[in-house]
Amino acid sequence: MDRDILIALVRIVDIKDGLTGAHTARVALYSQALAEATGLKEAEVYRVMRAAALHDIGKIDIPDHILGKPGRLTDQEYAIIQQHAVWGYERLARMGEDDPVILSVVRSHHERVDGSGYPDGLAGPAIHPAALCFAVVDTFDAMTSIRPYRTDLGPDAAQRAIEELNQHAGTWYCPDAIEALTRLYRAGKLDWIMRHQNGADPEGASSPDPEAADDYAVLSESLAGGRSLPT
Questions:
Q1: Which of 126, 141, 197, 201 lies in disulfide reach of 122, CB 3.0 to 4.6 Å?
Q2: Can you give the residue range of the structural domain that contains 61?
Q3: What is the CATH number of the domain that holds 38?
């Protein structure tokens, strides 16, 4: 898929959900950091970043009143939210996308190792490795970012996220991906990503990263290979 089309799709989702652009930029950068830390070649790093950028494309089809609801979702509303994985996969397939990494991440990023995830209830080796790894990244960002239902993170949000991910290693999430993400976190290599357009820093800072650019500029530059991660 052309990079400009990819960015346009992400923009459409962001129109529906104002937090999506920043979330997408962060998970693409987390995915880059994790992929590089696990030794993937440049071409594979690029593929997982594109998959990360497109993972929530199915939200285009979720009704606005459900997507932006600040309170607790009903069971029926949650079932609709869950369909975004299928709707995103189907939309990309109709557009001619055939990269198994992208399609698997979009459809399966809410699957769990023990089979308790959705939409297909896949387990273990039936889940594409890229989707397993991305699930860790997506969960970490969800737990360390401002959301309609959570406006105050607290100074230890990231540490709590790491601890919770490790509690579910091997049952819900891929242990190797958690281990790699934990190493990056403890080395301080995720801090600048956490600060990107995320209100108060999950680690206690009072303002976003001053170097954080427009979400789409960051995403476009990263997907073009123009933004290298700090070492």
A1: 126
A2: 3-223
A3: 1.10.3210.10
- Spacing of C-alpha 202 from chain mean position: 16
Give the chain's domain count: 1
Per-residue pLDDT of the chain (231 residues; tens, 9 = 90+): 788 888 888 888 878 776 566 788 889 999 999 999 989 998 899 899 999 999 999 999 999 889 878 788 999 999 999 999 999 999 999 999 999 999 999 999 999 999 999 999 999 999 999 999 999 999 999 899 866 555 556 568 899 999 999 999 999 999 999 999 999 999 999 988 887 766 544 444 433 344 444 556 666 666 765 455 554
Distance from C-alpha of 88 to C-alpha of 41, rounded to nearest angstrom: 27
Measured in degrees and rounded to the nearest 5, phi and psi for residue 72 equal -70, 135
User: What's the one-letter identity of residue 135?
Assistant: A
Which residue has 């009143």 as its token pair? 65
* Largest CA-CA distance found in the chain, in angstroms, rounded: 45
Decide: 223 and 53 in contact? Cβ < 8 Å.
Answer: yes
Distance CA(111)–CA(113), nearest Å, equals 7
Can you tell me whether residue 18 is helix, strand or coil?
Answer: coil
* Cα separations in angstroms, 71 against 30, 49, 227: 28, 31, 37
The SS3 call for residue 195 is coil
Structure tokens at 84: 């975004």
**Single pTM value for the model:** 0.85
